[in-house]
Amino acid sequence: MSEDLMLKKAEELKKKGNDQLKKKDYDKAIDFYTQAIEIKPTAVFYSNRAQANIKKENFGLALNDANDAIKLNPQYLKGYYRRAVAYSGMIEYKNSLKDIKHVLSKAPNDKNAKKLEKNLEKMIRQIRFEQAIQVEEDRSILDQLDFANMLDEKNDSSNRLPELDIHITKEAKRQKVSVDMTFDYIEKMVELFKDGKTLPKKHAYAIVSATAELFRNEKALVELSLPGDENAKKNCRSATAKKITVCGDTHGQFYDVLNIFGKFGKVSPEHTYLFNGDFVDRGSWSCEVAFLLYSLKLLYPDNLFIDRGNHETDDMNQVYGFQSEVKAKYTDRLFRCFSESFNCLPYSTLIGHQYLVMHGGLFSSDDVTLDDIRNIDRFKHRQPPKEGLEMELLWTDPQPAEGRSPSKRGIGLQFGPDVTKKFCEKNDLKMIIRSHEVRIGGYEIEHEGKLATVFSAPHYCDSETNLGAVMNVTFGSDLKYHEEFDTFEAVPHPDIPPMAYCQDRLGF
């Protein structure tokens, strides 16, 4: 094929990719751009593929494409802009700002670059301010709450809710809060939320503080079992339940969370639920989801469990909406209380000594054991570190190829079926259960049946076509654990779009 014909064919493929990008079919767009690159690599083709990867939040792949675009044409400003957006998605704001300032030095009137520069500088100032506050505070924000002088608002919310008994005990510098939660309170709270109302602030602070205390007393690796399991250790929980239901990401989709309980059964002493992280951000009812799960934890402490996800962290909450949502509906101080409660969340759950559940996935080393997870000191850092077991439990993803490779996200890594097999054999496990990624069918079993991804936010962000799914674990008369997956569709919600509280998307 002549040079002209090759370029013409590549341009046709690029046009098809552009059409798919407009239709928001990013996988097809990436495929067409890749075909164009294989025929005739250009800075434009790499930049376009970077944009499609940004839309899929594959920021690591987008960064690679942007770098290739810049190498091919150092004068191509879109390459620098795409790289800046990829850096911002990876929470590398200083690198992002450096690229944006380069763009503006060549094109000072570029509106998108000026907007991104403004938002990045705002984000960097906010982070510096919050870091300064953290340095000044040597005490827990929860320990500083003064419930005695905190008045309930005399509003419609107060009148519609039952009394909430709040108990305070003080031990040295610690303040311990407990709440006598009732099923009646939760029912009325749900109806309040459906009417677009918020909790009285004193109730909100008490629920977060009391739930954080429960999480604080749990291990980094929570261990659950079901009746009849003779191998259950003394520290196993959920001993009265007949079933454990594992839910993946719910991302502030409050009405879909209500549907989960309506479709698969309520939390009770006979039915345990485990929510596997990412219950906030993106969806515009993250406060409501958090308060519902926290209240259920207070009512059924041995039958409602939550693993930490990568979105139960400050840097993600600043970008994807939860921090702004809490400020809009309540106060910035309440967000700081939520943040501290997230720091108390366990990192992983072991069910029946057979199913290891974590939000992200496996590790950069084959030497990791369950004891390593048990021994994580999650109170050592205010936020999860950017490397090590905690980061990998929150961020890593499976891949079909053997071995390990860099993450498409730009954070963490990807691990293959051989890694999963070795880990299961080393730790005597039947299966790894994780979430963290959309699956069109709601769930997917991979790695020769040893790994399952469960995602519980159907019609994700009102844009994906995916189902939601849960995994039910039971213990049979054959004295064995069994898993079963159920799917469900999205239900209608009020006319508030996802990301309604994401003020600054930082270009992506």
Rounded average pLDDT: 94
CATH 2nd-level architecture of the largest domain: 4-Layer Sandwich
Here the CATH topology of the largest domain equals: Purple Acid Phosphatase, chain A, domain 2
**Class based on secondary structure composition and strand pairing:** alpha/beta
Q: What is the CATH superfamily of the largest domain?
A: Metallo-dependent phosphatases
> Rg from C-alpha positions?
24 Å
Name the helicity range: 40-55%
CATH C-level class of the largest domain: Alpha Beta
Quaternary status: single chain
Globular, elongated, flat, extended or rod-shaped: what is the shape?
Answer: globular
Low-confidence stretches: none
In total, the number of strands is 16
Q: What is the strand content?
A: 5-15%
Q: For the record, give the distance between the C-alpha atoms at the N and C termini, rounded to a whole number.
A: 38 Å
How would you write the strand order of the largest sheet? 3-7-8-12-14-13
Number of domains: 2
- The number of helical segments is 18
The largest β sheet comes out as: 6 strands, mixed
Organism: Dekkera bruxellensis
GO molecular function: metal ion binding; protein serine/threonine phosphatase activity
Protein name: Serine/threonine-protein phosphatase T
Domain Serine/threonine specific protein phosphatases: 199-492
Structure explained in plain terms:
- The radius of gyration is 24 Å and the shape is globular.
- It contains 18 helices and 16 strands.
- It has helices spanning about 5-20, 25-40, 45-55, 60-70, 75-90, 95-105, 110-135, 155-160, 185-195, 200-215, 255-265, 285-300, 315-320, 320-330, 330-345, 370-375, 390-395, 415-425, and strands spanning about 165-170, 175-180, 220-225, 245, 270-275, 305, 350, 355-360, 395-400, 405, 415, 430-435, 445, 450-455, 470-475, 480-490.
- The strands form four sheets. It has a six-stranded mixed beta sheet with strand order 3-7-8-12-14-13. Strands 6-5-4-15-16 form a five-stranded mixed beta sheet, with helices on one face.
- By secondary structure, it is an alpha/beta fold.
- Helix 1 runs parallel beside helix 3 (about 45-55) and helix 5 (about 75-90) packs antiparallel against helix 6 (about 95-105).
- It has two domains: about 5-135, Alpha Horseshoe (Serine Threonine Protein Phosphatase 5, Tetratricopeptide repeat), CATH 1.25.40; about 140-355 and about 435-490, 4-Layer Sandwich (Purple Acid Phosphatase, chain A, domain 2), CATH 3.60.21.
- It starts with a helix and ends in a 20-residue tail after the last strand.
